[in-house]
Amino acid sequence: MTDFDPIELKRIRWRSRRGLLELDLVLERFLANGFDQLTTAELFAYQKCLDLGDNDFLDYVNGKAEVDDPELAHIIGILRAA
Amino acid sequence: MTIPVRRFDAVIVGGGGAGLRAALQLSESGLKTAVLSKVFPTRSHTVAAQGGISASLGNVQEDRWEWHMFDTVKGSDWLGDQDAIEFMCRKAPEAVIELEHFGMPFDRLENGKIYQRPFGGHTQNEGEAPVQRACAAADRTGHAMLHTLYQRNVRANTQFFIEWMALDLIRDEDGDVVGVTALEMETGEVYNFHAKGVLFATGGAGRIYAASTNAFINTGDGLGMSVRAGIPLEDMEFWQFHPTGVAGAGVLITEGVRGEGGILLNANGERFMERYAPNLKDLAPRDFVARSMEQEVLEGRGCGPNKDHVLLKLDHLGPDIIKQRLPGIREIAIKFAGVDPIKEPIPVIPTCHYMMGGIPTNYRGEVVIPKGDNPEARVNGFYAAGECACASVHGANRLGTNSLLDLVVFGKSAGDSMVEFIKNEMPTWKPLPANAGQISLDRIARLDNQTGGEEVADVRAAMQRTVQARAAVFRNSENLALGVKEIQEVAERVKRTQIKDKSKVFNTARVEALELENLIEVAVATLISADARKESRGAHAHADYQERDDEVWMKHTLYYGEDRRLTYKPVHTKPLSVEYIAPKVRTF
């Protein structure tokens, strides 16, 4: 549970629409299942992921690239499992 | 209710490759230019283009734009307009070098020139041998293009309206385009953008199909807006497909899997390609395999609870080969199909990739529609470029790497035409009509007040199932006629969709309902256009009319939404400077 601004949560949902279908599919699944359980810290980290370029984001989610940023590593782990 | 107005010289809808290239032309000429985009521009679907951008630079092998033109005309199965094709292929080297000068990081040869790779359909001297014509930035060509163009636009002071959705085109009583109505997602407020010129660069509409490689944002917004404003759509029966996308997801499984020995099975476990192609079996040409797969589904031998796909079996190759030679495929299957191909087959289905048709334009990017005796009268103030436009360079079938080229060549050309029009013909703004934006307000009010309607997701799924079943790669008269009837029934349901969330701020449910109203226009146009074309040409393969019929059907379809009628207009057979390339049978 989180005290995140509900409007910000809606904005995050919209920003989960991406230019690459593969990301759309992963994030759609995640929004339906898992997103509502994120802590405030995880939500901040997810917001940061959404600022990534689509190719980098997908490479992280697919495990093709290592996540150096420890703040992102945890949330990417959640997305990989989604 | 008064709608607030924002005023610009030029308004561009869509922030992908074509929109950004056009915007740059306008901003750099000193015009006040706005770009409206549903998502951040560098996250437009252009980002998915990996293969490259074609241009006859001749950096690796001898090449000429005339050869590129021949390949494109042949690829289009002689439905492409030869003036537009000549324009694009001649401009290609200049367009690529311009991108290079903008800072796009192309792969290079040791001598410093741009490296070029081979790509299907591109040849030397009219089919003699393959040629290396595709310029790429690793496997991120679209991504690199978007970033390069976005940065240039920021420098040129293009004004971006990000997370704004255009809702409707504004035409005055003369039929001229004077603006666009748009929704600011963050507030839920509706604005009229008053402009001297409007350009649509809204991309494709592949989401009309159940199986599509397109991102969720590709909902044909520009096409829906055009239809509602009385502008016809051109050649909507032509859609490009890949044979093996993961069923229910759309992610592609490369043909290399069948090359390695993967085989296709129907619900009875039968290797059905042995029946359709006794010699080549699963390695028959791409379109043939796709049609055979769909025929199995249509005849009731599909797999799964909805009997809507076939299976791609790999497990007989053994875990070692799968892990060594097809690691990416195993990962895709696990992630998007939920199966490990070492143990289980992958559910696959022919998957829509690209829309050849669109808003009718000439090679100058001007939207042109029939008026009196003129089949191509300019709509003042209205322009389109990129996948949403039909120039028509791709005709009945697009060549790989020609789509990124299309974006930059026609984005720039449309931008130039707009600059010329605005500076020479539009000293001031034509007034907005009194009811400007009312249609958009009515659409939103309908959604807010609808009771007893259906969920958007349910109706969208019904549309996608119908288009997939009736107008994908296997087409015959009976199936298409059924599709025309069914899709019009779905269109009635779209009029009664309902949303639970009536809030204003970032209401994704409302956006999706409005997007569905665009998709359905494209879906109906596709079925009605496909049903009428009694021949096989390019991507439109008709089982009851298996030959191309140039005598009767070498013409462009135009679909009008208001009464769902079709007219036709001639294909441009006169190139700008070279001889006409006369039709031949397409053999490879």
Automatic annotation (TrEMBL), chain A:
Location within or outside the cell: Cytoplasm
Pfam families associated with the record: Sdh5
Domain of life: Bacteria
Chain segments annotated as transmembrane: none
KW Secreted (keyword) present: no
InterPro entries to which the protein is assigned, alphabetical: SDH, SDH_sf, SdhE_FAD_assembly_factor
Chief localisation class: cytoplasm
Similarity field: Belongs to the SdhE FAD assembly factor family.
Stated name of the protein: FAD assembly factor SdhE
Organism: Vogesella margarita
Automatic annotation (TrEMBL), chain B:
Keyword entries, A-Z: Cell inner membrane, Cell membrane, Electron transport, FAD, Flavoprotein, Membrane, Oxidoreductase, Transport, Tricarboxylic acid cycle
PANTHER family: SUCCINATE DEHYDROGENASE 2 FLAVOPROTEIN SUBUNIT, SUCCINATE DEHYDROGENASE [UBIQUINONE] FLAVOPROTEIN SUBUNIT, MITOCHONDRIAL
EC annotation from Swiss-Prot or TrEMBL: 1.3.5.1
Pathway entry: Carbohydrate metabolism; tricarboxylic acid cycle; fumarate from succinate (bacterial route): step 1/1
Start and end residues of each FAD-dependent oxidoreductase 2 FAD-binding domain: 9-404
NCBIfam families per the UniProt record, alphabetical: sdhA_forward, sdhA_frdA_Gneg
Reactions listed under catalytic activity: a quinone + succinate = fumarate + a quinol
Cofactor entry: FAD
Cell membrane in keyword set: yes
Location within or outside the cell: Cell inner membrane
Origin: domain of life: Bacteria
Presence of keyword Lipoprotein: no
Recorded family membership: Belongs to the FAD-dependent oxidoreductase 2 family. FRD/SDH subfamily.
Gene3D superfamilies: FAD/NAD(P)-binding domain, Fumarate reductase/succinate dehydrogenase flavoprotein-like, C-terminal domain, succinate dehydrogenase protein domain, Succinate dehydrogenase/fumarate reductase flavoprotein, catalytic domain
Residue stretches making up the Fumarate reductase/succinate dehydrogenase flavoprotein-like C-terminal domain: 460-587
Protein name: Succinate dehydrogenase flavoprotein subunit
Its membrane topology: Peripheral membrane protein
